[in-house]
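Predict structure. Chain length: 276.
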Amino acid sequence: MAFDFFMPLLTFPDPTDKDALRRALSLAARLGGRVTVQAGEVDIRNIRSFLGEALLDLSAMIADAEAKSRARATELLGVAEAAAAGLQLPLVSQRLRGAPELLPDMVAAAARTSDYTILPECGTEAQIAVAEAVLFGSGGPVLLMPGADVAFHAEIVAIAWDGSRAAARAVRDALPIIDGAKKVTILTVDDDKPLESVRNDLLAEHLRYRGVVCEFARAGRGTLDIGDRLQQASLSAGAGLLVMGAYGHNRLTEWVLGGATRGVVSRPQMTVLMSH
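Prediction complete.
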């Protein structure tokens, strides 16, 4: 199966790391398909102020920021094209221009016609804003990658399972990848939420019907953040991919990430497939 990946590249205030970009393209090449990379260029509204011009020269500062954003977009697209050529990975290059506060939602809209959105790195506020917008606004799954050079593989896949709708959606979105795994670890964290009604066996039965080998693992949360605990347990099981649901709360039409979701988005330690 050939996947259609979408990958946004940030240029402001900090650009996407080039090594992270190359690792993300390598992941796409391993899974197979094509990638559309889209570099976001900022268009900063100039609110004219006599005092601002006199003291700070705002117009010049805005022009400089926009010029740096355009130059970074050109540089990142060049890196992507060179890396994709070396990987023999089909690549489509695009540019997206908009106000910094509008770019996350514009990225989410652009991601709606892809199979998976790949986020090469996450952790800064700008990166988290894009991740949040795509998770809740694109209607599709997101592949979060750690900033560090952590090896990706899909031979062993961990599923963070709590029986929820979001977790079920994530599993369905990950099935094309899960079907090729040698083993799936169905992971639950004992003291995160009540698990009496969670039927791990039903998920295992569903996956085994598809020919997937399953095992179960339980972990105690302890004093760790739940997102960190899920990732550590997944890595301990030998998994190269963690599949989990994305949770959030709509506060006056603004999505706010739930605890476990934000913990993983802000501190990814491995490749994580998240879906809402």
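Summary: The mean pLDDT is 89.
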